[in-house]
């Protein structure tokens, strides 16, 4: 989505200010995208959406239901630590984390800038999600999977793959 559109500008402003994109705007954009042919033929992954019961119901009303709803469960402090330290490289368009996934040796760190997640924005989004997490779990109870995300990346990744493999075969 382009920042040059009315919707794009609204989304960009919300992200910059660390506030949620209005439900109607987010829902409409995502539903429109998930109804495209490639999403139907190849599948899709949503990260951070739906954020509320209302958004989940909008997806369901549009005939869109996930095969899995995975919650990577981590303590607040860990989530904040993982968000702080991220850097964006405008040339490669990669996102690095100075502690967990640093840029390759010799790469000019000076050209990178902090990801759009200020500490205040991270805290705001965490509180928003935490207050609504249980209602989302209820909406997706049949396909809900809680995974302990406070473990090494390879262990968490392996558990996700195992859950997907086990459930996908059953579908």
From TrEMBL:
Matching Gene3D superfamilies: P-loop containing nucleotide triphosphate hydrolases
Pfam families, alphabetized: ADK (PF00406)
Keywords, comma-separated and alphabetical: Kinase, Nucleotide-binding, Transferase
SUPFAM superfamilies xref list: Microbial and mitochondrial ADK, insert 'zinc finger' domain, P-loop containing nucleoside triphosphate hydrolases
Molecular function per GO: AMP kinase activity; ATP binding
Superkingdom of the source species: Eukaryota
InterPro entries reported for this sequence: Adenylat/UMP-CMP_kin (IPR000850), ADK_active_lid_dom_sf (IPR036193), P-loop_NTPase (IPR027417)
Stated family: Belongs to the adenylate kinase family.
UniProt-listed PANTHER family: NUCLEOTIDE KINASE (PTHR23359)
Official protein name in the record: Putative adenylate kinase
Species this chain originates from: Trypanosoma cruzi
């Amino acid at each position: 989505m382009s920042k040059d559109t009315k919707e794009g500008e609204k989304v960009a402003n919300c992200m910059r200010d660390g506030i949620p994109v209005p439900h109607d705007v987010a829902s409409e954009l995502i539903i429109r995208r998930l109804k495209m042919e490639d999403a139907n033929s190849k599948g899709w992954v949503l990260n951070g959406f739906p954020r509320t019961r209302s958004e989940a119901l909008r997806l369901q009303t549009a005939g869109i239901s996930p095969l899995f709803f995975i919650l990577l469960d981590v303590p607040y402090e860990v989530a904040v630590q993982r968000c702080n330290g991220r850097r964006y490289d405008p040339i490669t368009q990669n996102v690095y984390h100075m502690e967990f996934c640093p840029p390759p040796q010799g790469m000019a760190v000076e050209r990178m800038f902090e990801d759009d997640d200020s500490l205040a924005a991270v805290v705001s989004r965490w509180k928003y999600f935490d207050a609504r997490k249980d209602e989302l779990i209820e909406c997706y109870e049949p396909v809900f999977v809680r995974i302990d995300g406070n473990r090494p990346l390879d262990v968490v990744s392996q558990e996700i793959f195992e859950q997907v493999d086990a459930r996908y075969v059953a579908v």
